[in-house]
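Example 4.3 (complexes with small molecules)
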Amino acid sequence: MTGKIICVNAAIHKVLLENNTIIDTKTRGKLRNENIEPVVGDNVEVNTDTKTIEKVLPRKNYLKRPLIANVDKLLIVMSTSIPAFSSYLIDKFLLIARVNNIEPIIIITKTDMISLEEKIDIKRYINYYRKLGIKVYNNSSVSKIKKEFRNSVVALAGQTGSGKSSLLNRIDASLRLKTGEVSESLGRGKHTTRLVELLEVNGGLIADTPGFSSLELEIDRKMIKTYYPDFNRDCKYRSCLHIKEDGCSIIELVNNSKIPRWRYDNYLKFLEETNK
Ligand SMILES: Nc1nc2c(ncn2[C@@H]2O[C@H](COP(=O)(O)OP(=O)(O)OP(=O)(O)O)[C@@H](O)[C@H]2O)c(=O)[nH]1
Ligand SMILES: [Mg+2]
Ligand SMILES: [Zn+2]
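Answer. The structure with magnesium ion bound is encoded below.
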């Protein structure tokens, strides 16, 4: 019978079967016949007698952090205060989403904790992302966010303490997910959510995930610019990475404030960081 892995805890893989029952299967490490380690979100074939996963069906995509496969939408949950707002992390997740053919959606949290000046500052970033065609919601827009869940596999991503579990509790109070004291979790590097788990919410499967402290990019540096809709214009050289002034039309856009400096600076950081 086929099903979908909704949680992995040590050797126990919880599978939601097509007949809507949930079964605990045991799979140790990689599947014998395939060199593949089943992860949350995987569509699998299960032997219900032996309670083992026989086969992992082809994946649409695969993320390492959060560790999950077959994601339709990535909710980038970004706090505006403790942990601080970071366009660098948003841009990184946007890149990861685009590389994996996942629709990114930005969720802004904790705007109740910041001053009017800080709100105006953050609005500048939000406006730019909206201009790129990306949906941006405040975590108070519960009904709009809920609509995004229907018939979709959605993964939440964001730093520890950014408010991922709290958002899901707001949307469906019956989930009662554990949420953390932010000062504690940040100070001790503790994560309140420990496992990736797919939950049924509003006709979709939603993955609450543990926050992270670092996030690696695995992408060929030459390819990065191709995932930037705002960098999509010809340069003097087709292979231009937009690093050197000489005739680069992207740097010209940055100098003329058509592309924000922060957006370009984040791009330069990614070029440096990626190991490929
Ligand atoms: N003031 C305020 N606090 C919030 C908001 N959203 C979340 N919090 C608080 O922030 C803290 C951390 O929230 P969590 O939902 O546990 O964060 P998380 O992203 O799930 O964290 P991890 O599971 O560790 O990755 C909790 O104390 C929440 O009550 C918000 O919009 N405003
Ligand atoms: Mg959490
Ligand atoms: Zn260029």
